[in-house]
Design goal:
alpha/beta; four-stranded antiparallel beta sheet; 12 strands; AAA+_ATPase; six-stranded mixed beta sheet; globular; Rossmann fold; 225 residues
Length: 225
């Protein structure tokens, strides 16, 4: 389970409080959908769960599978099976897509897959979301469009097979065809991995048709309702 108890968070620099006494308990296999206006704290919640140093926990507990992970690094959280598809993916100039994806795949799956075998895995996953082949020959997100960056986030998710999937407005900036292919891939992943925890932030209801939330909340001024 992922248990968030009485979590309050502030901006690490300005010390302005953003999240106020959030409590949210999510069992394996549940899908939680969070709506809310811009600036209400939705993205901050996901970023805090991922360990973003921009946000400081004032009080509360983040318990994942019986362990308090509030002080864990983003890397350790990722290796434990937590994944965040961010709203604004960063570019990594000079870092090869194929090398980067193989590195994180091997780290998360605790194996050293030979290059030729990984390329077959990558090819199969990329086809599920109609991922443009030419992007795999470039550097990570360098010069990518907003939609291409979002597709790259989902490509990573499908490769890593996380236990907790957090999607921060993954549907924004995508054309209709791209949205549909990504939603279909997420739906298949959900059906094949029935114990995965989902935490979805979006302004659009379309994704709900595919992932069927078990719980829905609205974030208002840093509080869940």
């Amino acid at each position: 389970m992922l248990n968030i108890n009485n979590l309050s968070v502030e901006n690490a620099d300005s010390q302005i409080k953003i999240l106020d006494d959030i409590t949210l308990n999510i069992d394996f296999g549940e899908v939680v959908y969070i709506s809310g206006s811009n600036g209400s704290g939705k993205s901050t919640l996901l970023s805090t769960l991922m360990g973003d140093p921009q946000f400081k926990i004032i009080s509360g507990v983040i318990d994942f599978k019986g362990n308090d992970i509030a002080d864990e690094s983003p890397t350790n959280r990722s290796l434990s099976g937590i994944f965040l598809a961010t709203q604004h993916p960063v570019e990594l100039p000079g870092v090869s897509m194929k090398q980067y994806l193989r590195l994180i795949y091997n780290l998360h799956h605790k194996e050293k897959l030979p290059v030729f075998k990984f390329r077959e895995v990558l090819k199969n996953v990329a086809e599920k979301i109609d991922y443009p082949k030419e992007l795999l020959d470039r550097n990570v997100n360098e010069g990518f469009s907003g939609g291409e960056k979002k597709k790259t986030e989902i490509l990573q998710m499908l490769l890593l097979e996380p236990k907790v999937v957090m999607l921060d407005e993954i549907d924004s900036g995508l054309d209709t065809k791209s949205r549909k292919s990504i939603f279909e891939a997420l739906k298949i992943y959900k059906n094949e991995n029935k114990k995965t925890i989902w935490l979805i932030v979006s302004h659009y209801d379309e994704i709900k048709e595919y992932l069927k939330p078990t719980k829905e909340f609205e974030m208002v001024k840093g509080a869940l309702h």
